[in-house]
Each structure stands twice: as C-alpha cells, then as structure tokens.
Records
---
Amino acid sequence: MQFTSTRDPNVRVSFREAVFKGLSPDGGLFHPIETPDLKDLFRSFSQSQSFAALAESLLPHLFPEEISPTVANRIAERAFPFSPALKRIHPDGQGNIKILELFHGPSCAFKDFGASFLAAVMEEFLKDEASHAVILTATSGDTGSAVARAFYKRDHIDVVILYPSQRVSPLQEKQLTTLGENIHALEVKGSFDDCQRMVKEAFVDPQLIKKIRLTSANSINIGRLIPQAFYYIWAYANLSPAEREACIFCVPSGNFGNLTAGVLAWEWGLPVKRFIAATNINKVVPEYLQEGIYKPRSSVKTLSNAMDVGDPSNFERLSRIFHGNHAEMHRWIEGIWVTDEETLDTIRRYYNTEGIFLDPHTALGVRASERYLKEGYVPNPNCIVSLGTAHPGKFLEIVEEATGKRPPLPAQLQAVLELPKQAVMIENTTQELKRFLLSTFC
Ligand SMILES: *Cc1c(COP(=O)(O)O)cnc(C)c1O
C-alpha cells in the first residue's frame, strides 16, 4: 500500500515515509492510493479471534512490502495488550444498539488504539534503521495522554510534550507528567497557542532538524488512522450472522478520524450498510450531508469537548474517498447532531433504566443511534453499533451532573493520581524549547 496527498495526486510515498512525515509537504493528508479487497479475509474472522490476532493477520495484507508476518506479530502484540468490548444496551422502544467500547486502553479513550499502534510501528522501523527519533507535540490537555502512554518505554524514541501551565485539569497534568523515562513533559508559562507555535517553529528550525530527527504523532497521522479501521472489522466479527447482514455504525465525531477509519474498512470490503456521523452543535458535516455545502467555522464549546471542531481535518480524506460527490457521500453517511441537553438526558436515562454510566461523547452517539432507529431512516436495521469513545470516569463532573452519582475512576487513572509530577518549567519562547532539546538529545 502506498500513499498520496489529499491535495497533490503526484505525491507517492511508502507507509514508512508517511508515518514519519505525518503531513504531506503540500499541506495535505496522506491517504492510501490502492484499495485492497479483503472481503474474504473479513468473512474468515470469528468471535474467537483476539483483537491483537486480528490486527496481526490484517497487516501483511495491507502492507505486503513493508510488514512481514513476523514483524506484524511483534507490532500487534506490543501495540494491543488491550482490546475493545461489545455490549448490548436497550434503547427506548424497539431496536438493537450495541456499544463498541474503545476505552479499555491506558488512557481510557479510543485514541489509545491509534497512538499505541503508531508507537509500535515507529519503534519497529527505527530499530530497523538503527536510528532515534524525538516526537514533539503540544497538548491542550486530553490528547497528549494517549501519546505519552503509547510511547512510554519504547526503544529508539523520546517524547517531548508541551502543555500550558495551569490550564489543564489536575488529572490531565498527572497523566502527562508522571511517566518519566523517555517521556519529557514541558510545562510552558503561556497558552496552548504558545505551545503550538513553539512546536511549529521547532519543526522548521534548520539547526534543530540537522541534529535531531524530529517527528510528530498528530491525530492526522495515517499511522494512527489505519489501526482504527481494525476495530470496525473486529466488531463485525463479533456480530451474529443476522446482524452482519445489515450493520450500521454510529460514530461520535469531531475531527472525523474515527469515521474516516470506518469508511476505509468499508472500502476494503467490510459490508457496512451505512454510517451515522454524530456530532454536537459543531455540525458542519451533518449540514454538508444535508445541503451539499461545506461551511467551516469557529468551534463552539460543548459538553462533548473532544468533538468541538469547526473545520474537521479529515473531511479532506472523506471527500477524496467519495470523489467530492456529495450525494454519494450522503448515500453512505447520515449526519445527526445532538444538543448538550439531549446528551445529559441520555446519560441520565441510561443510568436510571440500566444502571450504566455513559461518558458525554458515547452518550451523544447513543442518542443519535436512537434517533436513527426512531425516525426509521431504514426499515428494520438489524443493529446499530455505536462507538464508545471514552470511559465515563474520564468525565466525572458531567456524568455526576447528569446522574447525581460519581462514576468510578478507572484503575489506570487512579494509579496516576498517586504518582509524583515530573515536569520542566520553561518560558513560552522557541529559544527555550530549542535549548531544552539540544541539551537533552545532543
Ligand atoms: C477525539 C475524540 C472524539 C472525536 O474523534 P474524531 O476522530 O476526532 O472524530 C470523540 N470522543 C472522544 C472521547 C475523543 O477523545
């Protein structure tokens, strides 16, 4: 499988290059050129297959030139010591909704799958080249922790994470700063925008890039997107034969990486009937699907804040997959947006009727799934698989506001709270960042 840019069709790079570059030089996103037909392979998967085993068998089919079965085994085992889970819930009225729980990894959100796979792949490629790389990234709080955990103790790689001092939650700060070893947390006296600017400037600093192999692990990296396709395939393998006939996936979306990954699995032959793109009031994509006009705008703050995106990067990828054809995209993807009130109401209702906690992002997806069922977009779908993107314990305050009860903090996060913070405080200048990088890695 080779990759091109969503903006320049003349670009042609290997998986290895795409992974380390992150973004194409023309500003576009890397996207697969070929579409392998894996229908028969998908049919051969069964419920008995672990997630890691499924990933292991997919990889050599996707990357026959770059990932041998032996390497696939190492990558899959290192990347996926955790697994998704599929649980049925009972919506109002008729219907079959299953939650695909993607929050059993180290940072308790679905981003663990992409980050952990990317880390394992980079480690493998760097070992092969006897090289060393430094991942440089800025975080406003939540996104950094999946990366920090994923790269912790990987050989050949160090991670430098910049975060704005006093502007991340105490739990988020602990997740970023308590690992140590090859994870270096820089507490920047400034804003998230300062952190982003410093990282951006470092990437183009001639002295730095000559001495240190700098790379990013952004959510738009194709090495994070590909493994997200695997859990759609895993979910399919765990459905009954009747459910497989007409399966719909509902994806709570912000930057639309998760949905794009599902659409990739469908392109490779997964028999998905349709996707639901569920958003909060940041409804640029649902509006596009309705009206055919893409109108990006500034994001609005909501309770499902990991989805507060006003101009989703991965829209470029979706658009490419459907050849810019709006009607064709709408044929396969329905857009539904959900208000904060509806999200809270959904969290409350499932707690009261089933005794389960849903995080705001997952609850939003469940609400969109219910509406899809009720409004009968399709007659009698056999099932909707709605993606559970975060553990409810990650959003304690909101879940407590909705239910009056505090969900348990997952063990992974509880453990982190008890560890000491290790961070280096720096000023908000690129000069300071540069000094840190040169003194630490040269
Ligand atoms: C990142 C995130 C999302 C949105 O995923 P995209 O791939 O950006 O659409 C949804 N829920 C949670 C909990 C997230 O962290």
---
Amino acid sequence: MNEKTKTKVGDNTRLAHIGNDPHAFHGFVNPPVVHASTVLFPDAHTMATRNQKYTYGTRGTPTTDALASAMNELEGSAGTILVPSGLAAVTVPLLAFLSAGDHVLIVDSVYHPTRHFADTMLARLGVEVTYYDPLAGAGIAAVMQPNTKVVLTEAPGSGTFEMQDIPAIVEVAHHGGAVVMMDNTWATPLYFRPLDHGVDISIQAATKYPAGHSDVLLGTVSANEACWERLLDAHGALGVCAAPDDVYQVLRGLRTMGVRLERHQHSALTLARWLEGEKGVARVLHPGLESHPGHALWKRDFSGASGLFSIVLDGGREKEAHAFLDALQHFGLGYSWGGYESLAVHVQLNDRTVAHAPKEGPVIRLQIGLEDVADLQADLERALCAAAKA
Ligand SMILES: *Cc1c(COP(=O)(O)O)cnc(C)c1O
C-alpha cells in the first residue's frame, strides 16, 4: 500500500492506486510483467539461506505481489494466493484444509463444478460431504458433526440466487471448530467483504468482474491471519501458480471494476424490475428486489448488487427455454459472465439435493452487460414473445 491510499477514501480512488508503487519501478504507473522461472542469487550463502525477497517463479514475482496486495486491500486479508482459474480458487483451499476422515458442509446452491470436485475427488480422498440448505442460517448446527472442518458458503446461490445468513453460519461453524470459506464471486469485495463478516477465507473467480473482458481465467483466495500460513503452504505444495500476463490483465481490469459494476448494477436492477411486471415471467430471482425472499439479508450485509440474476418463465419446459434463447440478438449464449457483453443460459438444477428448483417453468440466468439498456430490454421482449409462441 502506498502512502496516498492510507487515508480512508472511496472505492474508485482505492482501485486507481492499490497494488503498485510507481516509484519503486522508475515511476512507471503500472508494475512490470515479470516472466520468470529462474531467480539468480548473488552468492552461495544467499542461495543456501534463500535470504532474498524472490527465490523462484512459482513463489511470487513483483507482478503477482502487485495483484495480491491489491486484493488484500480490497478483502481486508492477511494474504492472497493467485491461481489459474476460479475453480482452482475453490479446490485449493478445500485441499488445504481437509484430510481423510474429515467432513465438509457445502451449500446446496453451490457453483456446479465445485459440487463435481467434492463428489469425485474429495470423496476419493476420504472426505465426507454434506450439502445443506442455503436458507439454513444458524440451522446448520443440525448438520454439523464433530469432524466438520470446513463450511463452504456461496451467496447468492449459483443460478437461483438464494441469500445466506453468513454471520449466523460463521458463529455456528466457529463454535464447532470449522473454517468458513465463501465463494464471493457475485458481489466482489466491493459489494461484500466476507472477512469483515467473520468468514476465514474469501474466494473469487477473478475471471469474472475483476478481469471484466471475457478473455482471462484467474482465481484469488484471500485468508485471515489464522488461515494464511496453511493456505500458502498448500499453494506452494500444489504448484498451481498463475501466469504473469493473466495476473497483469486482472490488475488492469481492477482499475475500472468500480465503474463497470455501477453500470452492471444499475442496468440489471432496471431490467429486473421491468421483468417482474412482464407477462410470461413467473418470478425474478434478484436479491436486490424487494420481492426476493433474501432481500432483507442482502440489504443488511451487502452494499450493492452485480449484473447477474435469473428469471423463472411462467410455464413451459426446454422447448420454451430454447425459443427464448434463440430469439435473443444482443445477448450471447455462454457461461462465463462478468465481461462487458450480455449473456443468457438455461439453468440446469437437477443436481440439487436440498434446495429444489423453481417449479413454475424454466430458469434463465441473465448476465447484464454494459450495452444500452433499451436495446437489452427490446431483446428480452422479443425473447419472451418467442417463448410464448413456442
Ligand atoms: C465462474 C465461477 C467460478 C469458476 O471460475 P473459472 O475461472 O471459470 O474457473 C467459481 N465460482 C463461481 C461462483 C463462478 O461463477
């Protein structure tokens, strides 16, 4: 952190200055992109004692330090590791804190590939997995076991946007001796700071809003003081370091993340409100709407909403969902959100064991990009019309 950012300032001011110190590198505004495997030592004694700041490419460079320190500022964390994808940002901390014979609690509305990892690799390594109701709150006490070592949260839930009572879950989990992790990709640390609410480890798919342009894969994992050493050890043991150009692109993306998110938020809420009154829409799943069952939690804990939400069509099945998607002209059909362009996808919810899928009709997830709202609204009108005719 440089001197200028130490006083309390607004998010956009912080984003403009965190993570680099121009005068440590000849005054250039941006940090260098260091491509490195080998780091040289000046003499044998320094080499034997590894007594210098950088020692090996996988263990950090000025480029990874710049992004990690920016993330520490945003998250309020003791340390941050950078990994090659958002999925690795989920799997690495789980591997760091779980051993054979342990039990992990995972929210049932979790990002699907996280479930796949738990059901295949964690199960094979002898870790017992239980999925819990996203609405459980302090009720997770009922599914805690003496060997529960990790409680994984994600709010709002993937595809269906259930809100979780994070402070209530943290209290119960800590009482039982478990570490609490949160996949906070939706809100980013600008709209929710997990560690401020007692979470131990904050996970972000930086692929999404931090990168912001659908061209980079990266994950960040930020830990509090108590969990940092163990997380860092696992990162070093696994060797899953991030590539320098990708790290640089995410640092670049962070500079504009605040203004992009404001636009995503405003456009998404405008369209969500309009969709609520449209024929053919049974429900809009957006925690920023007063009608959402998790709205009070969202208002209590979050300071904003990003651009991703779902709608439940009023009746129909796959045919109607496909007619909706195929009528779209500005929305692309694709998965990895957080970029500048709008996207739509038919959400598959047959993996849920506790949190059941909405019954009224197909669930369509929308990522509202940076385009003009009027054009997106016209596109959605066309799509609803096509679904009604299907
Ligand atoms: C996209 C996503 C991830 C994974 O990110 P990748 O970089 O695509 O691997 C993890 N968690 C959530 C909630 C996501 O939306």
